[in-house]
Write a structure and sequence with these properties.
The chain is mainly alpha-helical and 170 residues long. The chain is 66% helix and 7% strand. The protein has a three-stranded antiparallel β-sheet with strand order 1-3-2. A hairpin with a 7-residue loop joins strand 2 and strand 3. Helix 1 runs antiparallel to helix 5, helix 3 packs across helix 4 and helix 6 runs parallel beside helix 8.
Amino acid sequence: MSGPKIENVAGALALALSDELLRAAQDQAPEAGSAAAALALLGHAPGLPIETLRRALGLSHPGAVRLVDRLQADGLVARGVSERDRRAVALVLTPKGQETCTAILAARQGTLSRALAALSEEEREVFGRLAEKMLRAALRGEDHAYAVCRLCDPAACTDCPVEAELDARG
């Protein structure tokens, strides 16, 4: 397979997986758009401030505030006082929000499991190592890390390559 074809196939695969992951996650969320990613990210990083959530989701500040307002009205998110900065709002999932987050991550996991079922166990190992290498190389910084990991399951990734790369860069 030639370079341009590899790149084309990789791009098509990335879009196919991305579209399917987002669809599966959004089916579990109270609304379309950024709600699923917000809930998953808050499950991954409890106490996240609105500003960090906003940057991770690529929203304007008013857009992020409106999203949090809706999630709070749905009983999924609670606002608290940040331990780092008493002026900042810390966002945490409610028990209902945690249940929804669990459903979002399960839908995501099912989608990925079905996609990876096409590979043998050995191929999955190779793919995993290559994907980790590419992920580390693609990382642009802390804000990008939150964006990249916005639908990640922290329990499944105990040796996170994104965290390791951020640590390595200092």
